[in-house]
Amino acid sequence: MTMLAAAKHAASESPPPEFTWREFAVFLLTTAAEIEHSLMVQYLYAGWSLGGAQVPEEHQEAVTKWRQIILGIAKEEMGHLVTVQNVIRFLGAPLALDREDYPWDSVLAPYPFALERLTRTTLAKYIVTESPETWPDDVSVGERKEIERLAAGPDEQKINRVGALYKKLIELIGDPSKLAASEFHPESYPTQSSWDEYARGYGKGARGSSVAGTTKTPDVLVMRAASRADAVAALSAVAEQGEAPDKAAAQDDESSHFRRFLTVFRHFPKDGAWEATIPVPSNPVAPGLPAAKGQSQIEDDLAGLWANIFNIRYRMLLSYLAHSHTSSGEGALTRRQGVVINRMFAEMYTLRAVAAVLSRHPLNAAGEQRAAAPFQMPYSLQLPDSDAAFWRLHIDLLAACRTLLKDPRIALGTDAEYAATLLSLDATAAEEMRLYADAATVRTGHRRSTGAA
Fold this sequence. Notes:
Layout: H1 3-10, H2 21-49, H3 60-90, H4 120-129, H5 141-152, H6 162-173, H7 195-198, H8 228-243, H9 247-250, H10 257-267, E1 284-285, E2 296-297, H11 301-323, H12 331-359, H13 387-405, H14 408-411, H15 416-452
Parallel strand pairs: 1-2
């Protein structure tokens, strides 16, 4: 089903033949979650590519700011992803943690998924993806044509606006004639992630900066839904942070993703005047599976080890995100949920650090390109069915990572000190998790025995 077909069905009097209205809403929400996940990953990769010794001294401050802006947007996409998961739970559906991967085979995503360094072309794709239905007056006809031409590329591919999908979702969920109140699950509210947990230890806008307080951006949006109005408000807020459809917001350089990407685009170097990014490849792949057409195999020995470590840490991030939605609202479990969310944000910083390690190693023997974060999806997204099983999964992933970090090649490399630090932090985390796993096992066993009696 194309985005256009989905839009037409959302506005029609009946859902597509294979759906009820509720199933169609879940389908569109799942699509939105996959898009937010994909955008988050691509923005992280592009943001991490900025900087390096090749940046002329007079431009280093600007490039540092661009990096903070892009990474800030990526963190906000994480909030969008979590908010969409909350609405999915409100409709009684399972979490949607999948995303588009390479090779790309979807007609629903804004554009073909690709991990690429930041360029004027990638910026143009981001701008069109996040654009409002009506572009602001300060974008001239000529500038818009240039952005749309770069975004389309030589194949003249169509870029889908994310805002169009959210508009149809808002119309569908807000329509009582299509979704009755009985289709919603307000009892899921305690299992939904809250902004209070995500905002712990941060002042307003601090999450948009690599260094807290250096670049102001909007707070990460994490909104829950206990009513139809809550769900509509949550999706509307996500759409607005991407598009900034109103004139007041469009004049604020720190408001929408569209506006911030446009600001970077207007100052980004043209025609190779100077290089703002390190020479990372497109679509890097860790050792283990052969690279497909359009992918770049990481062949350097040490880089390959760190690439596999990165993939494990990425899987950890997704497992923490899923686990954060399993609280029953009881006091002990709410405290546990806070621990899980803190681990999730710690993993975001670990991923950034491991990506920096990768960029210090060559991609292959040629040495012209640097290695980079592969962001490969795990072999399975099947989630544990209990709190205790989640803790065991986290412990298993830490153990798998420990094996790689203890490889003698890493111990003899230039990043041995960081590896030792990560091992120590992981050991402390694993010890704490074992306590929670034991407690969850005892609690579950006690409840089962009580029920049997």
